[in-house]
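Would you mind writing out a protein's amino acid sequence and the numbers that encode its backbone to help me picture the idea?
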Amino acid sequence: MYVRLYMGPQVEEMVHVPVSLHRLWLTCFLVLVTTVFLIYAVFNLMKNPSDVSFNLRTGRNCLTTECLAVDDSVVTSGNSFSFDFRGLDVDKLMYNRAPKCGSTTIYNIMRKLSVDLGYQHYNSKIYDKKILDESQQRRFVKRVRKMPSPCSFDRHVFFVNFSKFGEKSPLYINVVRDPVERIISSYFYRRVTARRRANKERLNEYWMNKFEQCVLSSDPECTFIDGRTYSVLLLPYFCGQDKKCLVHNHPWALWQAKQNIEKFYPVVGVLEDMNTTLIVLERRLPRFFRGALKLYHNTGIRRNQNTHKEEVSEEIKDLLRANLTAEYELYFFIKRRLRQQLRDIQMEVKRKKHVRSKII
């Protein structure tokens, strides 16, 4: 091969440089493979960043406990998680689903797994009755008690304390989401629903407002003030039916929500970390969730995704986030708990492998 060498303004000549064609082809091939791999990795992450944990070391989607990495910054070092199942009805599972947190996906997983794992799943069609008075709570408890075991049940309802009515509580589960992202998703979902109902009729101007306008104008739909009551936030789903649970940023409501989670919820998942959520559900509640992760990835079970949601600037999100103190404290409490559970599971797997290696 000849290469033209530039040797200053006066001298330029052709010099023969021996180059192996085999090496050249090999280099080009490696560059091409690396480029394709990086494009594939970035595409996977952009396509569904909240649902898929992509392992750059192995180049595959993470479907195992060992593959998932634990973020040490959100895990309590040195502590392990334990849940006391004593006093609870372990043959009944209650999913008091919080809206816009992947609840349709979890419901579909439970519905399909109930057939495979041999339990009954009951789905409530009541979507707008989350607050129950005492007589309604009593009827609710009685209905769940009469369900044949093993079974699971889902409904959009705030936590109900079964022990208050002298009954064993079922195991509770739920899934949460970043509070601001959930509020944004709910805002656009309500407008999509309104457009569907209106069909070709002209919608009220209110339903055409931009989210930014809603926040900046302090519209009640996008404004949350300390001391006022709200039934659209996450915290009441865990705090319960007490009126104080609806009071925004109430210290007792936050404390009660955490207490209920520790006592009645073996697992609370996080939508942004669905792989971890399903792994922990499988490991801690195998009677109801064995095979959930594989089902989630292999059957296209994800549904009810709002494709009409608009982009919202970080400045607007920060304005909204500023007074959601209790919501975020609860969210990060749940996130730390879930990651600690994952770490404990990974340690269990390592210990079992170590024991097996010694036996062999």
